[in-house]
Amino acid sequence: MISQESARAKSAAVARRRAKLVGMPRHAGRYGAWHLFVLPALSDNYMYALRHAETGAVVLVDPGEMAPVVNWLGMQQCCLHTILLTHHHQDHIGAAAGLRDVYGCRILGSAQDRMRLPPLDYEAEVGECFFIEGERIAMLGVPGHTLGHVAYHLPDAGLLFSGDTLFSLGCGRLFEGTPEMMLESLEMLAALPDETMLCCGHEYTLANARFALAHDPENAALRARYEEAVALRARGLPTLPVPLHIEKAANPFLRTMGDVTRFAKLRALKDAFS
Ligand SMILES: [Zn+2]
Questions:
Q1: Are 115 and 88 in contact (CB under 8 A)?
Q2: Residues 6+ away with beta carbon under 8 Å from 130
Q3: What's the total number of domains in the chain?
Q4: Residue 172 belongs to a domain with what CATH number?
Q5: Crossing angle between the packed helical segments 96-103 and 66-76, to the nearest 10 degrees
Q6: Which of 73, 153, 211, 243 is a Cys-bridge partner for 138, taking CB atoms 3.0 to 4.6 Å apart?
Q7: pLDDT tens readout for residues 185-240
Q8: Would you say residue 19 lies in a domain?
Q9: Quick check: is 14 in a domain?
Q10: Distance, CA 145 to ligand 1 centroid (Å)?
Q11: What residue numbers bound the domain in which 68 lies?
């Protein structure tokens, strides 16, 4: 029989080994000129706030809920500058207009989807680059989850906001687009530099890992990412952002590149997976 103390020592040793394995959490930090903050919203959404290190200006991605943003801005004593929207689903845009009413910020989204987004102060075209506080931001067209879905890439800061297109160990459901469209979108994102940090719209990593492990049980990178995600969630931390090179090695949907039949089959299996 194992005494309580030796059981405790054993679980502490396991925790130490796991901590060594997974390293430091990456949930927030400095990326170029910006501090990145992950703000949980609704049941499993993430909003992302970038605070400029010098000016204090804040760029907010996909505000689905007002209260966490208002609370966070109050603590930070900084100014909401621009809201970026990836797609029209309510859990990504729900608080945008209300935040503009309160803080007088501007809302930026895709011109292509203007009729489904809150009234935009700035409409960017797919493929366009624009600047906020001197930071270059590219709007990438990534249809599949919705037809007007876009992602935002900050090449100098090394950040990618992928909304509901690419998740850690998964990808978005095809509500409007075709498998061909989604695969092309994922291929575009996977072609970004390896060290790019992926910031996606939901905390789906563990659920995605269960599906991924069932289909790719021998993948060591996937197993390591799963272990890391388990450790982070056990501490109540987000599993994001995550470097793109980890996703390229571990995400089963990124391992179907160039094979739309295989991608479509995998997506259908995931839709049916419980
Ligand atoms: Zn969505």
A1: no
A2: 108, 122, 124, 136, 137, 139
A3: 1
A4: 3.60.15.10
A5: 40
A6: 153
A7: 999 999 999 999 999 999 999 999 999 999 999 999 999 999 999 999 999 999 99
A8: no
A9: no
A10: 7
A11: 25-272
Residue count of the chain, please give it: 274
Residue type, 241: P
Tokens of 225: 């990412």
Q: What number of CA atoms fall less than 13 Å from residue 48's CA on the CB side?
A: 29
Catalytic residue among 62, 81, 91, 113: 91
pTM confidence score: 0.90
Query: CA-CA distance, 66 to 80, in Å (whole number)?
Result: 13
The reply to whether 30 falls in a domain is yes
Give distance in angstroms: CA of 134 to centre of ligand 1.
Answer: 29
Q: What is the 3-state secondary structure (H, E, C) of 58-124?
A: EEEECCCCHHHHHHHHHHHCCEEEEEECCCCCHHHHCCHHHHHHHHCCEEEEEHHHCCCCCCCCEEE
